[in-house]
Amino acid sequence: MDAEELTRRYNAGERYFPATDLSKTKLIGAYLPGINLWGADLSRANLAKAKLWGADLSRANLAKANLTRANLSGVKLQEANLRGAKLNLSKLYGADLTGACYDDSTSFSQGFDPISRNMKKL
């Protein structure tokens, strides 16, 4: 699926896109609050400035994804793969990061503590 099809289906009222392959997709500034992308492949996707509050990204592969300045407030990211992801200046208020994995190449906003959010380092 590409960004255009996802946006079209979302705008038509569809919200459930589990295990969808969106790797390398450009969704810069996308407005997708409440979308369900459980288990989706978003590796290397560009989600900079995306508005995803209330979304379900549990078990999603976000390896090397760009989430800079994305609004991830209230997002479910349980067991998501965030290795190498860019989360600089992203809003993570109320986000559930339990079991989400990260590594030394994952970039967070200054002062963000992944351990206090129950994330696991790989």
UniProtKB/TrEMBL annotation:
Name this polypeptide is given: Pentapeptide repeat-containing protein
Native species: Halotia branconii CENA392
Lineage: Bacteria, Bacillati, Cyanobacteriota, Cyanophyceae, Nostocales
